[in-house]
Backbone:
């Protein structure tokens, strides 16, 4: 999987580096080919999101608007991203449950979504990536970020 510099920098702006910083998040968009998944855009957070230090819930109407707008640009909805107030982020049970609910309620062209969690540091170790299907949640090991 490749993440563009623009998408990465957008998400990095919302890292929870201060004790009062709230979780933030949004949607991931890009392209899929036989060789790779390329994340070229990240959207959010939105004004009506539910945000606290340890909880994030995207505004469904704003998220749907972003999905439709990005589709008009030829980009696929690939999944969700959000921040955690930790250096090495790990998905909570609530994170996996929220993604399973999203899969169940959504009309997608895929049976899987990505979940990217952005930690406090500016390193690959501070990014957590999971693929979520109806049956399982699998963590992926990130070695490089190519932008």
Residues:
């Amino acid at each position: 999987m490749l993440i563009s510099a623009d998408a990465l920098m957008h998400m990095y702006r919302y890292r929870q580096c201060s004790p009062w910083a709230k979780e933030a998040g949004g949607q991931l968009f890009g392209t899929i080919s036989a060789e790779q998944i390329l994340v070229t855009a990240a959207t959010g957070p939105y004004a009506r999101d539910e945000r606290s230090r340890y909880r994030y819930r995207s505004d469904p109407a704003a998220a749907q608007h972003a999905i439709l707008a990005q589709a008009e640009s030829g980009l696929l909805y690939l999944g969700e991203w959000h921040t955690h107030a930790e250096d090495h982020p790990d998905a909570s049970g609530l994170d996996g449950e929220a993604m399973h609910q999203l899969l169940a309620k959504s009309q997608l062209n895929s049976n899987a979504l990505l979940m990217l969690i952005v930690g406090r540091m500016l390193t690959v170790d501070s990014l957590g990536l999971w693929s979520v299907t109806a049956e399982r949640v699998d963590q992926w090991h990130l070695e490089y970020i190519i932008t």
